[in-house]
Amino acid sequence: MLYVYGGVPTDLAKRDEIEAAARSFEAECLKEEGCITYNLAWSITEPGFLRLLEVWESTEAHAMHTQQSHVLDWTSFIASVSTAPPTFSKYVVRVVS
Questions:
Q1: Does residue 6 sit in helix, strand or coil?
Q2: Rounded to whole angstroms, how far apart are CA atoms 60 and 64?
Q3: Strand, helix or coil at 28?
Q4: Architecture of 2-92 per CATH?
């Protein structure tokens, strides 16, 4: 299982536009095979910081995700409304019961 955690500081003046795009983007990601969860949310302590948590069944599923047209479109969009580059960490997790 792969966890991706991070986020991006954004222009608060564009919050409504970002939220509309994020809702659509998140919905598309959740439809992808191998996506367990995909969540974008605003940080309470860092105004304008859009937090991301993704969980994928495998690194291969995530690799396929990164090539999807909606991901490429989102990447371009979020770069246009961010105030600094995004930061992400990836964690491969072995699930035990």
A1: strand
A2: 6
A3: helix
A4: 2-Layer Sandwich (3.30)
Q: How far apart are CA 50 and CA 6, in angstroms?
A: 9
Question: Phi, psi (5° rounding) for residue 82?
Answer: -90, 155
pLDDT at 96: 86
The per-residue pLDDT for 97 is: 79
Q: pTM for the full model?
A: 0.91
Report how far Cα 95 is from the mean position of its chain's Cα atoms.
Answer: 22
Query: Hey, where are the domains in the chain?
Result: 2-92
Predicted local distance difference test score (pLDDT) of residue 50: 98
Residue segments in the chain with a per-residue pLDDT below the cut of 70: none
